[in-house]
Please model this.
Amino acid sequence: MINIQKGTKDMLPKDSYKWQRVREVVMELSRKYNLKEISTPVFESTELFVRSDGDSSDIVNKEMYTFTDKGNRSITLKPEGTAGVVRSFIENGLGNEILPVKLFYISPCYRYEKPQAGRLREHHQFGCEIFGANTLASDIETIMIAYDFYKAFGIEPTIHINFLGCDKCKNEYKETLRTFVEPHLPEMCEDCHKRYNVNPLRILDCKSPICKDIVKSAPKMNECLCDKCNTKFDDFKNMLTSMGIKWVHDTKLVRGLDYYTDLVFEFVDDDVTLGQNALGGGGRYDNLVESLGGKATPVIGFGIGIERILLYLENKGIEIPQKNTLDVYVASNTDNENYIIKFISSLRKKGFGVESNLMDRSLKSQFKYADKIGAKFVIAIGDDEINENKLTIKNMSTGEQIKIWSNDIEEYLEKNV
Ligand SMILES: [Zn+2]
Ligand SMILES: [Zn+2]
Model:
């Protein structure tokens, strides 16, 4: 027997209704917020993710699913959704159309890491990117799309926010942080030595207890913001409050990816019984389009891991309603297959969901089966019914059973299904 690859999961039929619900919610949001869908390939040139702008991140360093193909090209399975969308935005000149360009995707993502609970090598993300706008309204709208997604599943997360400032603030803060960290460097982990040179902000994010302890007393980013950035961040916080969204200013939030500027955010469940749960996040990356060779274009976006959300709902005991979609089971007790097949076909043409006797079961076991698969109605057809032109129809939830003219069946179903 051939087994599934480590860190991957089958989406089984018993769980498909959950995924269908996710897609349904996303489609509804795309309508309400006027988002257009984009889909980019699973694999891209490795250089799309390993950029030459001097930034580095753990995902890029350690976790990418990279291989050389038969044409000797370095290929990477996309570790996240944004870079591919930005590549496509530039390559297809989407920025030449009217701005903003508001996009969403549901995409598989790949990270080569040690599989552990909730950490998969292949997972799926619902993501959103808004190109061309850098306004309070576009910030809030992005947050609201994600927030409405959570709310559709009965989740009310707290949003953890931080403000990395404009390029000037960010660069000044990097220097402030370097100056602070330098005397402690000998005690710090190897990764932080690299970060010190390449992107000192990531030091704030280090998981090593020694580093964590050192940065506790580091100068805070928000203490180094310019007036313009300060006002922008205050307006954003006030707007969140007036929208009734719970927020926390988390001065250490920098996010795992390095292309963020300005605003970063994470959606978190603060329920201590479950441990802090990051349910998704994003931010602004106003330099990314330019750094990938496009015309300078501000972008804000987020990504939400779907498997993560489904696991979270399961742990919280929140159920996704399962819709009963089978309208009719046609139980047959006749050799006149021609009649049965045509009858079923006519019901489907009218839009009803129909199942029938594909397994040559007896009439009795057909009723049992119809009950098991949750059919709302069973229509029983034998030779007598065909000759009389009257069919027996049973409402499976009330048990009520009546005979009606076969010509009236569709009208009856339309009224009662
Ligand atoms: Zn600034
Ligand atoms: Zn460290």
